Task: inverse folding
C-alpha cells in the first residue's frame, strides 16, 4: 500500500506519523529509536575493543582515547544498549506493534499516554547522547553509576555535568518505562477479545506482561535512588558517601555529614537492575516458545507450565539482586540467601529450555531464518545461562567478579540472546509490518555469520576472565609488575576477540541490507505467511486489511499453537475460526 | 516506501458508535452490569471489540491509576528502606569509637493537625466520588434533567482542594518551625529524611491538587458523564493513596525515629 499522496501531503503525513497515537506507529517509532541506539552502541563497543588491543590507535576527529574516554565509552555503551535497545525494542517496540493484535485488541489501553511514553524515551536518549558534548564529558561510572565517585561532582572528569545528564536521562527513561508498562498491563488485562482467557494468551504476551509487572515494581525504586544520588551530588547530603571518603586527595566528610553507604546504592540500584535483565529477556523467551512451536508444527510442550515459569522467573528475578554485591561487603548470611534464590532461578529457566527442546525434538522443523534465530536464542540462552549458577555462588564470584568472565556471561545471555530474540521477531513479523518477506538467503547468511561472530566474540571472554582480565580497564599494556604480565598474557586472545567483534559488527550490514532491500523489493507475503495460529495474523487485524472496515467480531476458540497431523495431512488450527471453517490447510 | 507499515489512515476513529448504544452524550446510566474486560466470563453478545459496556472506560482508567500508584508505593518503600538503613549505620572515628550521627528529628506538633486535615480531605473526596455514582442522580442526568451529579460533587471536590492547600501550608509551617529550631535539611541524617519525605509527599500532593483542579474543570466543562466520573474517580483514588501514604510516613516519622 502506498502513501496517500494528497496536496501538501508530505507535511500532513509527517506530522501524523510523528505524533501519532496509533500503537503500530508508536511501535515502529520505538524500533527505529532502538535501531539508531544499537548502531551507536555497537560502534562505541568497537572503539573500546580496538583501544583495548591497539591503544595507540588515534580516533579520527577525536584523537587518542584517554582512560576517561574509555570509561565514558563503557558507560554510554552499557546505558544505551541496556535501556534504549534491550528494554526498548522488545518491550516497547514489538510490544506496541504486536501485543494488541495478539490479544485481539484494536489498540492500547491509553493511546495518548503511549505517545507520551515514546517521546519521553526519545528525550531521554537525546539527553544521554548530548552529555558527550558538555564540559568534562559524559558520565564515566558505568551504567550502574556506582558511588562514591558518582555522588561527588568534583571527583574527576565525567562526574560533573555529564553525570547529572546521565541521571536526568535515566530518570526520564524510568518514568517513560513505567507509563509504558502500565499501558501494557491494562491492555492485557482489559482489552482481550472474547474467548482470550488467561491460559489462551500467547506466551509472548505473558513475557510482555511479566516484564511490565517488573517495570512497574522496579523502575520507581531506581527513580528514588536517582533522587537520593542527586541530593548527594547537589544538596550536600551523604546517603551514599562514607564518612571521611578520600577522593582525589580531598576528604569528603566536611560537606557531607552522616554515614553514607555505597552499598545502599547497590541495594537500590540492583533491586531495579536485576529485574531489568528479565525485562530485556522475557519477551524473547515468550517469542521463542511460539516460534519453535509454529515452525515445528507442534504444540508448546507444557503450556501452562510455561506460563507459570515465566511468572516464577519474574518473581524470583525481584528477589535476587544481592548477587551483584557478594564482593561488596555483604553480610555472608545475606549472601547465602541471595545465592540460593539466584540458583533457584535455574529451575524455571531449565524447565523452559526443556520445553523448547521437547517441542522441537523429533519434529520436522522448517528452518526459516526466524526459526534459526529462535534456535540461536535457545543455544545462547543455554551457554550464557550455564555460567549463571557459577556466578551465583559467592565463593566463585569472589574470584570472577568484575572480570571478563562476568562480561562474557551477561553478553551471551542478555545481549546476544536478547538480540537474537529481536532478530527472530524482525524476520518473523516483517511480513506483518510491510506485507513482504525478508530475503531468506540473506537472512540465513546473516544468521550464520552472527552466531559464529557471537560465539567467537564472547566465548573467549570467559577465558580472559579466568586469566584475570578485569572489566573497565582502559589498557592491558603498560601496567607494571606481575599484574601487567598477567594482563599482557591475555593480549593474543583479546586480539582475536576484537577481530571477532569487528566481524560480528560487519555481519550486521547484511541485516541492514536485507531490511532495506526487502522493504522495497521483498517477496510479497500472503496474509498468514507462516501459517501461524496467533491472532496478529487474523485477517481482520492484519495491517494490510483496511482498519476501518474490519469491525467484525474476533473470537478466540483455542490455545495458540494447536496443530493436527492426521495420516500425513497437516492441519493448522488458528486461535480464531476463519470463515466458519476451523481449519486451514498449509500451502 | 513501497509499502506501508501502518494502516492507510492514522486518523482517530470516532470514539463512540451508535451500535454501541452510546451516542456520546454520556447519558446512559453507568449501572450496566455487563462490564469488565478480558476474555473470561463476559457477556460479549452485543459488544464485539473495543468498548464493552459503559463502565469499561472507567474501570480501565481506574486500573491504570492503581498500577501507577503501586509503582509510586515502591518509590516510597525505597525511600523508607533508605531511612532505616541510614538510621542504623554508623562509622568509626579517629579514636576508633563507633559513631552514629542519627539524632531523631522532633516532629512539630502541627503535623498532627495536618494529618487530621488530610484525613478530612479524604472524606470530602470520597463524598464527591460517591456523588458521581449516585444512582438516582445518574438517572436524572440520563433523562436530561440537568446535571445534579455535577452540582452535588463540585463543592466536595472544591473542599478537597482547599483542605489539600491547607495541608500543604501546614507542612510549610512545620518546616519553618523546624528551621527556627535550627533543624535544616543538612543538619542530620534524620533531618535529611524528614525534609525529603515531607517534600516528596508534598510534591505528590501538589500533583494531586492539579489533578483535582483538572477534575473540577472537567466537571464544569465536560458533557460526558462518563468522563466526569472518570476524572473524579481517578483523582480520588490518587488522593486517598496520598492520604494513606502520609499516614504511613507520619507513623514512621513519629514513632520510628
Ligand atoms: Cu543479576
Result:
Amino acid at each position: 500500500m502506498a502513501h496517500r499522496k494528497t496536496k501538501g501531503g508530505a507535511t500532513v503525513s509527517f506530522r501524523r506519523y510523528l505524533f501519532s497515537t496509533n500503537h503500530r506507529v508508536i511501535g515502529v517509532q520505538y524500533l527505529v529509536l532502538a535501531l539508531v541506539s544499537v548502531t551507536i552502541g555497537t560502534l562505541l563497543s568497537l572503539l573500546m575493543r580496538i583501544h583495548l588491543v591497539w591503544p595507540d590507535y588515534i580516533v579520527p576527529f577525536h584523537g587518542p582515547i584517554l582512560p576517561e574516554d574509555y570509561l565514558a565509552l563503557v558507560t554510554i555503551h552499557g546505558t544505551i544498549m541496556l535501556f534504549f535497545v534491550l528494554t526498548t525494542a522488545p518491550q516497547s517496540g514489538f510490544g506496541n506493534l504486536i501485543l494488541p493484535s495478539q490479544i485481539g485488541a484494536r489498540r492500547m489501553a491509553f493511546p495518548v499516554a503511549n505517545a507520551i511514553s515514546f517521546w519521553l524515551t526519545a528525550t531521554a536518549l537525546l539527553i544521554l547522547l548530548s552529555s558527550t558534548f558538555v564540559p568534562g564529558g559524559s558520565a564515566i561510572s558505568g551504567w550502574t553509576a556506582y558511588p562514591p565517585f558518582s555522588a561527588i561532582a568534583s571527583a574527576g572528569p565525567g562526574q560533573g555535568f555529564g553525570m547529572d545528564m546521565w541521571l536526568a536521562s535515566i530518570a526520564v527513561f524510568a518514568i517513560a518505562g513505567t507509563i509504558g508498562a502500565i499501558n501494557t498491563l491494562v491492555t492485557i488485562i482489559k482489552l482481550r477479545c472474547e474467548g482470550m482467557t488467561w491460559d489462551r494468551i500467547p506466551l509472548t504476551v505473558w513475557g510482555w506482561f511479566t516484564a511490565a509487572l517488573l517495570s512497574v515494581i522496579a523502575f520507581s525504586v531506581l527513580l528514588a535512588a536517582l533522587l537520593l544520588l542527586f541530593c548527594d551530588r547537589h544538596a550536600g547530603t551523604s546517603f551514599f558517601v562514607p564518612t571521611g571518603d578520600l577522593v582525589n586527595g580531598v576528604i569528603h566528610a566536611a560537606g557531607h555529614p552522616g554515614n553514607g553507604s555505597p552499598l545502599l546504592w547497590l541495594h537500590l540500584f540492583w533491586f531495579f537492575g536485576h529485574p531489568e535483565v528479565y525485562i530485556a529477556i522475557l519477551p524473547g523467551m515468550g517469542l521463542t516458545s511460539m516460534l519453535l512451536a509454529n515452525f515445528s508444527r507442534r504444540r508448546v510442550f507444557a503450556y501452562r507450565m510455561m506460563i507459570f515459569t515465566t511468572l516464577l522467573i519474574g518473581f524470583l528475578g525481584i528477589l535476587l539482586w544481592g548477587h551483584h554485591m557478594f564482593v561488596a561487603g555483604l553480610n555472608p548470611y545475606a549472601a547465602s540467601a541471595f545465592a540460593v534464590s539466584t540458583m533457584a532461578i535455574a529451575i524455571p529457566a531449565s524447565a523452559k529450555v526443556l520445553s523448547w527442546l521437547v517441542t522441537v525434538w523429533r519434529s520436522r522443523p522448517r528452518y526459516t531464518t526466524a526459526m534459526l534465530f529462535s534456535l540461536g536464542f535457545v543455544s545462547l540462552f543455554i551457554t550464557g545461562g550455564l555460567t549463571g549458577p557459577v556466578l551465583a555462588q559467592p565463593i566463585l564470584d569472589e574470584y570472577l567478579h568484575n572480570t571478563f568472565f562476568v562480561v562474557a556471561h551477561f553478553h551471551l545471555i542478555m545481549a546476544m540472546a536478547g538480540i537474537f530474540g529481536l532478530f527472530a521477531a524482525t524476520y518473523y513479523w516483517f511480513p506483518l509490518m510491510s506485507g513482504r518477506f525478508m530475503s531468506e538467503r540473506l537472512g540465513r547468511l546473516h544468521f550464520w555469520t552472527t552466531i559464529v561472530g557471537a560465539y567467537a566474540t564472547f566465548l573467549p571472554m570467559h577465558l580472559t576472565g579466568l586469566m584475570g582480565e578485569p572489566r573497565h580497564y582502559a589498557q592491558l599494556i603498560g601496567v607494571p609488575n606481575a599484574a601487567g604480565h598477567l594482563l599482557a598474557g591475555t593480549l593474543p586472545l583479546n586480539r582475536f576477540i576484537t577481530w571477532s567483534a569487528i566481524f560480528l559488527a560487519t555481519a550486521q550490514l547484511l541485516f541492514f541490507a536485507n531490511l532495506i532491500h526487502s522493504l522495497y523489493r521483498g517477496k510479497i507475503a500472503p496474509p498468514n505467511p507462516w501459517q501461524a495460529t496467533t491472532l496478529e495474523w487474523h485477517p481482520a487485524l492484519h495491517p494490510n486489511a483496511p482498519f476501518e472496515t474490519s469491525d467484525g467480531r474476533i473470537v478466540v476458540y483455542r490455545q495458540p499453537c494447536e496443530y493436527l497431523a492426521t495420516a500425513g495431512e497437516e492441519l493448522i488450527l488458528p486461535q480464531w475460526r476463519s470463515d466458519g471453517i476451523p481449519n486451514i490447510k498449509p500451502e | 516506501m513501497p509499502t506501508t507499515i501502518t494502516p492507510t489512515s492514522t486518523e482517530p476513529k470516532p470514539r463512540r458508535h451508535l451500535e454501541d448504544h452510546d451516542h456520546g452524550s454520556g447519558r446512559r446510566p453507568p449501572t450496566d452490569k455487563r462490564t469488565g474486560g478480558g476474555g473470561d466470563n463476559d457477556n460479549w453478545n452485543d459488544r464485539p471489540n473495543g468498548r464493552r459496556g459503559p463502565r469499561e472506560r472507567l474501570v480501565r482508567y481506574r486500573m491504570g491509576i492503581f498500577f501507577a500508584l503501586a509503582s509510586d508505593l515502591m518509590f516510597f518503600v525505597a525511600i523508607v528502606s533508605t531511612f532505616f538503613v541510614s538510621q542504623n549505620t554508623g562509622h568509626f572515628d579517629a579514636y576508633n569509637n563507633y559513631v552514629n550521627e542519627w539524632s531523631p528529628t522532633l516532629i512539630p506538633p502541627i503535623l498532627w493537625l495536618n494529618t487530621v486535615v488530610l484525613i478530612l480531605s479524604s472524606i470530602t473526596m470520597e463524598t464527591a466520588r460517591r456523588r458521581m455514582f449516585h444512582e438516582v442522580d445518574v438517572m436524572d442526568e440520563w433523562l436530561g434533567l440537568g446535571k445534579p451529579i455535577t452540582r452535588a460533587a463540585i463543592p466536595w471536590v472544591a473542599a478537597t482542594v482547599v483542605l489539600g492547600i491547607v495541608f500543604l501550608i501546614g507542612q510549610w509551617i512545620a518546616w519553618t518551625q523546624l528551621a527556627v529550631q535550627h533543624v535544616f535539611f543538612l543538619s542530620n541524617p534524620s533531618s535529611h529524611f524528614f525534609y525529603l519525605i515531607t517534600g516528596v509527599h508534598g510534591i505528590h500532593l501538589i500533583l494531586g491538587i492539579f489533578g483535582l483542579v483538572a477534575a473540577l474543570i472537567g466537571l464544569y466543562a465536560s458533557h460526558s458523564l462518563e468522563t466526569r466520573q472518570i476524572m473524579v474517580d481517578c483523582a480520588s483514588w490518587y488522593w486517598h493513596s496520598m492520604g494513606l501514604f502520609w499516614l504511613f510516613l507520619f507513623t514512621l516519622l513519629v514513632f520510628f525515629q
